[in-house]
Every structure is written in structure tokens, then in C-alpha cells.
Amino acid sequence: MNIEQIYTGCLAQGAYFIESEGEVAIIDPLRESAPYIKKAEKENASIKYIFETHFHADFVSGHLDLAKKTGGTVVFGPGAKTSFEIHEATDGETFNVGKLKIKALHTPGHTLESTTYLLFDESGKEHAIFSGDTLFIGDVGRPDLAQKGDLTQADLAGMLYDSLRSKIMTLPDDVIVYPAHGAGSACGKNMSKETHDVLGNQKKVNYALRADMTKEEFIKEVTDGLLPPPQYFAQNVAMNKAGAVELDKVLEKGNVPLDIGTFEMMANHEGALVLDTRHQKEFVKGHIPNSIFIGIDGGFAPWVGALITDLQQPIIFLAEAGREEEVVTRLSRVGYDNTFGYLEGGMDSWEQAGKDIQTLESISAEEFAQRYEKGDLNVMDVRKPGEFESEHVEAAESIPLDFISDQMNKVDEDKTYHIHCAGGYRSVIAASILKARGFHNLVDVAGGFKAIKETNIPATNYVCPSTLK
Q1: Please, which residues have CB within 8 angstroms of residue 228's CB and are 6 or more apart in sequence?
Q2: The CATH number of 361-467 is which of 3.40.50.880, 3.30.40.10, 3.40.250.10, 3.30.457.10?
Q3: pTM over 0.85
Q4: 246-352 is a CATH 3.40.30.10 domain
């Protein structure tokens, strides 16, 4: 028996490769099929099943492409309806993979078709569950994504409570829990950085699995404090139900070098968004006017999904040399397939051609502290609401990056704003969006709140949650 967790940090997502006796099951694959096919070939095995725990909202799955290339059967849980052929499992149905058995446990709540897959080892013992977004390490899936008609998030939370207690908590304590996501995913709110655990420990430490918890308490705790889901979630669900086009075709269209003339024509006359994926320090030093920064080395795909509202938006981009295909691939993971190429030669070619360049003022935390002590600074904190409420610079205004487009009316173009996040990545994204909208009196605080806390700004300028009103 071979079980491999294939974890993708940008999406905080876990896919799984299970092999026995030359047969393979893949659970919750990403868009690109090549890594799974190569692993199977290395094991001299064939992919028999492609299991999906539910219709994913935060990424586009490669199940259809993988099935076409391998002949594997796509399996969804009860109630799943797609525009392509699948095997719709029944609750309790068992699938053979070599000497292993995988049992479908219908666990609605996160979504109606959500299904946990229970793996039995060669001896017939319950070994692990692949819980999708039903059960995370330290948390459970949010119950607000599948609301429709008269079905509310409270109704779904109640279903989730029943699923956990009737299907999962009854399993042996030594069963390993392999979830679809970890910390950083928007599919839950209190996920651990750990990517797997044993069920017995989760019963002790996971707030949602308390033995004495009533359904009413569960519903209240699970639904309390949920932020609105990112706008691209619903669009990704639709793509997963319809079946996404092959990644090969997306790469063929998007991984293309563009000369400066073509690049400018697409930006100025065809409405393409110019996406700068370099490091924020490079963007600060010089960038193409009206370009948007979302660096490839940060939470790239989720921020693209949260901030670029149209999945059909034409995109052209700048990238570090050699990382162009990576950019197109990672855009496709969240459904942005309308990429038309990258600037050949990058910023060097742009500068050599004498084209206009903009910069962004960026100062150290020490310089920020000096300016702050002189008073009358407009400080914009673009971290998430929970981060801001936990601790923040006194007098800072909270404008979370997630909702910056909706809160643009709070920004005065005649004022100068010192913008910070936690570490310096999100603040440059925010500044780039504001600059593209015509706000130019902006100062980035490099290193963010982490660096600010190391300065001599008095501790009284930080407010703990208990004193916030």
C-alpha cells in the first residue's frame, strides 16, 4: 500500500495518490494531470479511479482531463450531477483498488454531495479517511457555499453536524484523517497548519467534534464569523460540474512570448489586464503603468481569484524568466484560462524601449515609525478583519485587501496613505490596485506589521481585542 499526499501550498490543498497491486486511485486532483500520470508510470501502475469528495469551489479540478488520458473512472458522491459521464456513488458503496477497499460515506453539510472516502488496508482494517472539506485538521468545512432556494447555511450546518457524528466520529480513533485543505484556505476558518492527524486526537482538539456539543451549539459556532466567500468560488464550482478544458490547450494559448508592440496593443486596445507576477521589491522599483501586482511567490492563485472578478478577463503578464509556464498553470488552477502571453524580455525590454515606467514609494518600518511619531499620518491596514482586530496600529483604518474594490469610496485621492499588511506582500497588491484606479499618493511600508512591531512605536498604539469597541 502506497499513500502519498500531494500538497500545494499556494492553495493549501491536498490531493492524494493511493496505489496497490498496480492499481491507483487519485483523490481531489488539481488541474494539471501530468504529475499523477507520471507517478503512476513510475509505480508501473494504472489509474483506475479518480475520486472527488465534492464540487470544489476554490480550485478547478483536472478530473475530466485525467480520465480522458488514463481511462480512469471519475467518482462523485450521491446527488452529484455533471455534464460529463461519472460514476455517482451510493452511500456505503465499496471500490476495490488492488488489495485495498475504498468505501464512500455520504457526508453532506459543506455541500450536498460531499462524500468522505474510507480506506481499508490489505487486512480489511479501517486505515484512513479522505475527508475533503467535511473535516479539516482543527476545523470543519464552511456550510454557506451550497445555499440555494430555501436551504440556509444553518440547514447545511445541521447536516454537517449529523454527518460528522453518524459517519466519522464513530470510526476508530487510530484512523488517519487526510483533509482536502490546511491553514490558508478560505474553505474553513480555523484550520491547523498540520496536513493530517489521527481521528482520536481531532476528537480532543477540534472544537467542532466536542462530544457534549449540541446541534444548536454546533450551528452557532460553525457559522459565527464567516467572511463572504471569494467571488470566484461559484464560478469554479460551475467549471467543475461542466468539466474544464485540457490544461494543454490553456498552456498553448497562454505560454506565449509577446513583443512590446503586441503587448501594448492588447493592453491598450483589447482590454487585457497587465498582471505583474514578479517579487514585490521589483514591482516597487519599476512597473508598467496601470499594471496590477500579484506576486507568484505569495498566495498567488487565491488572490487572483479574489481580486480579478471576471474569469473571462483577458490577461497578459510579466514574469521572472523561466517561470512563465508556472504562471499560466497557476492561473488555470482557479479558472483563469483567458491568458494570452507574457512580455518577452520582461521589464528589461520595456525599459530599453524607452517606455513609461511608474514606481511606488516604499519605506522601512523605521522610517514609518519616525513619520508616525510626528503625527497626522493616514495609515491603511489591508490585513484581514481578524488580524486587524487582534492587534493594529492605533488610528489605522481597516480596508481589507479582500474587499478593497468595494471600499474604494473610503479612499481620498487628495490624501497620502501609508499602506501596510502583515509582511509586505498584500500591501503592494493593494497599492497597485489603487494606483490603477487613479490614486497616486501612496506609500508602502516594507515588512508590514511584523516589522512595525519591532520599531519604537509605543505599545499603547496597539489595541488588543478586549479593548476594541
Answers
A1: none
A2: 3.40.250.10
A3: yes
A4: no
